[in-house]
Design goal:
Blueprint: E1 13-24, E2 27-38, E3 42-46, H1 53-61, E4 68-73, E5 76-77, H2 83-93, E6 94-97, H3 109-119, H4 124-137, H5 153-165, E7 171-175, H6 183-200, E8 203-208, H7 211-214, E9 219-224, E10 227-228, H8 229-237, H9 242-248, H10 250-277
Helix pairs in contact: 1-10, 3-4, 3-5, 5-6
Length: about 280
Amino acid sequence: MVAPPDNAPPDNDVLWARSLHYSHSGSPGLIGVSVGVRQGEILALTGPRGSGKTTLLRCLYGQLVPDQGEVWFNSVPVHTMGAVARQRLRRDRFGWIGPEPQLLPELKVWENAALPLLIAGAPHRAAKRAACEWLDRLDIGGFARKRPGALSRAESQRVTLARALVNEPAVIFADEPTAPLHRAERSLLLRTLTTAARSHGITVLFATHDEETAAAADRRVALVDGRPAGAAAATAAAPSASAASAASSSAPATAASASASSASAENLEDQAACSLSA
């Protein structure tokens, strides 16, 4: 499905959004945000907690439908898709890494890593081989036949990264992916993610307030109070709006923070729903 020429996104953007607005129970989470990401680009969404990073990430991922605005993936309008089509898009073309490891405890480690392939109907042996290759690259191949309960938090996050990469998605979305990790683990995760993305032409978007993590990106987009940083600064500087801005600035942050705290649970539910529908 291709939009009319005047609505089509730029040809060189694999993911593109225009004038996104989203509200959390009446409190604005995104206000007129536009962004484009090129094939193979690594983009960091930066800003303080509650700035709208996770909300934007989840709108681009197709988990949230914006109140206003457009989201396009490879010239396909994600914002007009039904729930089932968006779920299929996430399963087949996207990968997700949350701030907390999201592993299914009843599955072995290699099965958790291979889940996108198994759900898509890949042969069991091929799925296991691909998953174990990524687990080996992340130095946790020895845990392949164990259950997630035997892993540390950092090791579990590496399994989450393996799962995001196993089917070579077009785009990987990472929401504070290094938050639970110590410095050495953070460096390993970032190095593996960026190396895999560059060698396989995978586009990566990650939300972070960590400077070291943001430095791994090709480009940054900063958000403040649900707006692009420049627009937020202009709004705050306007004399007629300064008092209102000060009075309302905490509401979007609080609502966005609540949304971020529920993101892991919602992605786990999304993953479980995919498993049940396979």
